[in-house]
């Protein structure tokens, strides 16, 4: 009976230890909400970032709150059917990525600063960190970056919040590979550009090199079947991976 007791006790202890280790191995995902407009939802950027991370064993949970043509002022005021405020209240987020309107720094610089600051302060009260998605110049007007870049740089410094240099990567990619089509039209990202943007956010959120990522990015549908998000030419994928890996991201948040 004594032997049976110790055998049972050992089995229970072993089970508890196994469950504890198993629970520690299953880390909670990093929760990221992407807020913005069509610059974010073209080719499903948030899903691309999550799929890239998953392929490397990193657990990210992403959602998006996007409405075409919207600025952060409309997300704040809950206009145009935006649901950002509700999503921010629905879950404990770790990061919130803000994609403002592509003309916000040019046509409404005061509102650009005001609503970026409002949202940054708001999400921080909820325990999340704001991250700004730097926009880019249009295909027909690359000189827009003369206004866009300093505005984002000043914003990030003032709020001590990081930005992902998407616009700067557009400039570098167009400089070295003018043949690579980055635009679906005059302003929206092509599948090539969305792959590049995905790489940039993957690098920011994971700290891992992008060189191990596949040229095909896929997730799973509700049936468990593969749902392909992006198909890349291997040469183009290699170029964009090297571009992003070599590019130095500024540490505005002082982490």
CATH top level class name: Alpha Beta
Radius of gyration: 21 Å
The count of domains is: 1
Structural class: alpha/beta
Q: Estimate the global geometry from the Cα principal axes.
A: globular
Tell me the distance between the termini: 59 Å
Number of helices: 11
The biggest beta sheet is recorded as: 5 strands, parallel
Share of residues in strands: 5-15%
CATH topology: Rossmann fold
**Mean pLDDT metric:** 92
Order of secondary-structure elements: HEHHEHHEHHEHEHHEEH
Unreliable sequence segments:
1-25
Number of strands: 7
CATH architecture classification name: 3-Layer(aba) Sandwich
Give the CATH H-level superfamily: SGNH hydrolase
Adjacency order of strands in the biggest sheet = 2-1-3-4-5
- As a percent range, the share of helical residues equals 40-55%
Please describe what this structure looks like.
This protein is of the alpha/beta class. The protein has one domain: SGNH hydrolase (Rossmann fold). It contains eleven helices and seven strands. Helix 8 links the parallel strand 4 (129-133) and strand 5 (162-164).
Topology summary:
Blueprint: H1 2-25, E1 30-36, H2 38-41, H3 45-55, E2 60-66, H4 72-77, H5 84-90, E3 95-98, H6 104-107, H7 109-125, E4 129-133, H8 145-159, E5 162-164, H9 166-176, H10 191-206, E6 216-220, E7 226-231, H11 234-246
Parallel strand pairs: 1-2, 1-3, 3-4, 4-5
Antiparallel strand pairs: 6-7
Helix pairs in contact: 3-10, 10-11
